[in-house]
């Protein structure tokens, strides 16, 4: 049986459905994949002014909704009044809460990418996950570009899988160059770009040593089938893509 490869629907598969919405998740739940492929969904999470967690990538809601303003300065009730899929032809699409995201597709693995610097964010996430066990914690991976946010989540809920922090990724890249990979962090999901500036991050050695430790290597961003196959050839075990259905249709 071929080794599985994961397509991670970037922002819910934003090229194929309204970004970070329950409608996108429902569409992905109906997606039929070749035997080799597995599906996960990345959903971006921010905190509202009244402490609710909602699915939104940008600091402001202007790009993806009919509203204006910063998520951190709006209440959930205010967010509920905007259209979260303008121009899509769909009606009644709302900015979902984290709890709605967890409930709508309980069989799909989720990457929850935390944005924002609110001190209360990690604890609020852990509390929400504790209330909603549908689908199990094993399907959740938590990520953030802020190292302190990831560390706080790890302290609150050590059993939860987390992505490597930017600091851990940099350390692994440097250790790889010095052939000291054995000292790199383990037990992580490595979510990495192919390159960072002129520095190549995804290498066969990076992928091999991570996978040898039992870790996943998920690369970004694959805009088409050719990019996904290039990442796979380099040893990645998954790719972030805004077009999972299009890539799945060409797989094989």
Précis, in short:
Helices cover 31% and strands 19% of the residues. The strands form 2 sheets. Strands 1, 2, 3, 4, 5, 6, 7, 10 and 11 form a 9-stranded mixed β-sheet that branches. It has a two-stranded antiparallel ribbon with strand order 8-9. The chain is globular, with a radius of gyration of 18 Å.
Note poorly predicted spans.
none
Q: What string gives the helices and strands in order?
A: EHEEHHEHEHEHEEEHEHEH
Average pLDDT score:
95
Distance between the termini: 14 Å
CATH superfamily: Phosphatidylinositol (PI) phosphodiesterase
Q: What CATH architecture would you give?
A: Alpha-Beta Barrel
Q: Which fold name is given in CATH as the topology?
A: TIM Barrel
Number of strands: 11
Tally the structural domains: 1
Largest sheet: 9 strands, mixed
The top level CATH class name? Alpha Beta
| Radius of gyration, in angstroms, nearest whole number | 18 Å
Please give the oligomerization state of what you see: single chain
Look at the helices and sheets and give the structural class. Answer: alpha/beta
Give the overall silhouette: globular
């Amino acid at each position: 049986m071929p080794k599985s490869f994961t397509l991670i629907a970037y922002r819910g598969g934003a090229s194929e459905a309204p970004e970070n919405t329950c409608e996108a998740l429902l569409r992905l739940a109906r997606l039929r994949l070749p035997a080799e492929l597995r599906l996960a969904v990345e959903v971006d999470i921010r905190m509202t002014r009244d402490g609710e967690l909602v699915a939104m990538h940008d600091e402001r809601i202007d790009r993806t909704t009919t509203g204006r303003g910063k998520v951190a300065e709006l209440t959930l009730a205010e967010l509920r009044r905007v259209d979260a899929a303008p121009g899509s032809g769909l009606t009644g699409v709302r900015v979902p809460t984290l709890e709605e995201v967890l409930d709508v597709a309980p069989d799909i693995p989720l990457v929850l990418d935390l944005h924002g610097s609110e001190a209360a964010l990690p604890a609020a996430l852990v509390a929400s996950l504790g209330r909603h066990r549908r689908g199990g914690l094993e399907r959740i991976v938590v990520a953030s570009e802020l190292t302190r946010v990831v560390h706080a989540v790890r302290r609150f809920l050590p059993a939860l899988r987390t992505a490597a922090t930017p600091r851990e990724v940099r350390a692994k890249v440097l250790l790889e160059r010095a052939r000291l990979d054995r000292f790199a962090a383990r037990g992580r999901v490595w979510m990495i770009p192919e390159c960072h500036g002129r520095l190549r991050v995804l290498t066969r050695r990076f992928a091999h040593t991570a996978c040898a430790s039992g870790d996943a290597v998920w690369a970004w961003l694959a805009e088409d089938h050719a990019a996904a196959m290039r990442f796979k050839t380099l040893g990645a075990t998954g790719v972030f893509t805004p077009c999972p259905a299009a890539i799945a249709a060409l797989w094989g």
